[in-house]
Amino acid sequence: MKLIDCDSKVKSISTTWANDTGAINCLNSSSGVFDYGIYANAVPLTIETNLINKYVYALFWGFQQISTLAGNQIPSYFVWEVLFTMSIIGLGLLLFALLIGNIQNFLQALGRRRLEMQLRGRDVEQWMSHRRLPEELKKRVRQAERYSWAATRGVPEKMVLENLPEDLQTDIRRHLFKFVKKVRIFSLMNEDEPILDAIRERLVQTTYIKGSKILSQGGLVQKMVFIVRGKLESIGEDGISVPLSEGDACGEELLRWYLEQSSESKEGKKVKLQGQGLTSDRTVRCLTNVEAFSLRTKDIEEVTTLFARFLRSPRVQGVIRYESPYWRSLAANRIQVGWRYRKKRLSRANTTQNDYQTSKS
């Protein structure tokens, strides 16, 4: 029986099928009446009333045949069924080949990165042995190397950017260095301000391990650091600790210092006054591993020279003085010193007045 004809005049077709011996035999794949081939397991779905069950099973059957390359199916002699089975086998082989190729490329890339890391570690170990570093320093160097590799993924970012067009480099830096706008002084500027692009061009990626000191009290401030990831603490002369985290910056007092240490000659040229450099009144220490971008003193000097007119505006000067943690700490110290001095004067005045009244009486 190749076709099943149901009487359209009968109201209940399911009842007719249920009483039809030929129909029952056709819907039974094991009866041998019709060779269903690869669709033998799908025959019971014809009497399934739940549409979701039909769809889910059909989807499962498709994934099963692709994953097994239709190896568990025996098609009938029907030509289109044989061609369909061949297409499933071909598609499965293609997907399997693509999977193997991708896995091979991944393993090769992973092995190449691992080899590069091993060679770099071997060079560092040989250098430390040649220089006879103590074991404590070796441990810190290994830790710094591991964190630096994890932060950069072993990719020389500067070299990658240098090979790109200049306008594309600018757009990429604007995307990567959005944290620059989190610093109060730079938040006053528009995104396309030339000074922001000049700062982004000079930023250098830097990593610090836990316990490293970025600034030391009494030492020279040699860089401005923008924190990207990690936690730090800033300890002032009074011992008060101020937490620093992502989006914060330290060393921004260099901007103000370079502006104060320079002047303009009669010819309009920039003249750098002689000085020993800015010393830090606080200690900034890393509480965790820290990823940051730094701006060196040489670069800050160039920026302040190129954009001195903007940095000398009252608005920017107010931000530098009143929003900077350095200047807030300095102002707090000045207030404390003035308050102690006033209390001491009042105490001396009260003591003198009491002595005078005592001697008079």
From TrEMBL:
The keyword Transmembrane applies. Residues 187-255 form the Cyclic nucleotide-binding domain. One of its GO terms (biological process) is monoatomic ion transmembrane transport. Keywords: Ion channel, Ion transport, Ligand-gated ion channel, Membrane, Transmembrane, Transmembrane helix, Transport. One of its GO terms (cellular component) is membrane. It comes from the Eukaryota. The chain crosses the membrane at residues 77-103. The keyword Cell inner membrane does not apply. SUPFAM superfamilies: cAMP-binding domain-like (SSF51206), Voltage-gated potassium channels (SSF81324). Gene3D superfamilies: Helix hairpin bin, Jelly Rolls. This is Cyclic nucleotide-binding domain-containing protein. It comes from Trifolium subterraneum (Subterranean clover).
